[in-house]
Give the backbone structure.
Amino acid sequence: MKDVLILGIESSCDETACSVVKNGRVILSDVIASQADFHEQYGGVVPELASRMHVDSIYPTIKKALSDAKVKLNDIDAIAVTYGPGLVGALLVGLSAAKGLSSASGIPLVGVHHLKGHIAANYLCFPELEPPFLCLLVSGGNTMIVKVSSYTDIEILGRTRDDAAGEAIDKIARVIGLGYPGGPKMDKAGQGGNSDAYSFPKTHMKDTLDFSFSGLKTYALNLINQSKQKGETLDITDFAASYQSAIADMLLKNTMLAMEQTGIGTICLAGGVSANSFLRKAFDDEAGKRGLTLYYPDLKLCTDNGAMIASAGFFEYINGTRHGLDLNAKPSLEL
Ligand code: KG4
């Protein structure tokens, strides 16, 4: 079979990213222009500024992805682009660039769901990985357990009813003064800490695989405020270790229930929070005990990148998906 080359474009939040991927599995180039350092001064992503920065970066990023891969636009079989969910202004930049290229060149356009991209990051790291498997999808705004029945069919088994795990970590990181982006800073802060030093309530709802992190987050906020009022200082290392371990336990417990209910023993982690060392360790330990097959992407591919969009786009493309120039950005696109 002839090799299929996909150009993947991602601009849903604060990374302008573009990549060329061969046959959905092999990264030929992976270029990321991150705005994270710029948004740090505001303590979070400022949507309007993110859109403007995407406008500046999008064409240089695409050009570099093609030249790093040593291919020309004409060699590309399809242009895959994130069209949701995400910040509408940010999504529109990548989508407009993809539509412009597709219209000018005649190369097919394939819209990709951002979260399907996160799942596909595992295909790039593990050539042997094939559906069916379960995936714990933990990105900045989403926490869900999904059943990946085929490369394009995904069923949600459980999801958060309030905050995403990533939001619960980012918010508390900000309150304890770790800054933005909170996830990696909280992870670092907790290294070597005693995860039993602080005891957090872990919500587990009956008869559902859904999550709720708002109670845990409120408990953490109260603990911080009470210790301030009493003039006590929290041990940040122990606090960060205990908080992240509690979140990891909640994520692990429901994923194990999903495994027992479906009988599927292959589990993937995906999304930015899958970079978290407490989460990885909790899953490593449990997978070892239960003899499960566990995958999580290389650190670089956990957070937003163009390669994961190209990989997910490849599987959509060979499944026959094509989009027209009427494809619009969908900030709240459902899986
Ligand atoms: O998947 P992602 O890059 O963007 C979305 O698609 O949402 O995820 C970003 C999230 C942020 O909440 C960030 O704090 C979190 O991933 N994150 C981490 C770590 N690295 C990134 N959270 C915990 N530990 C980490 N090491």
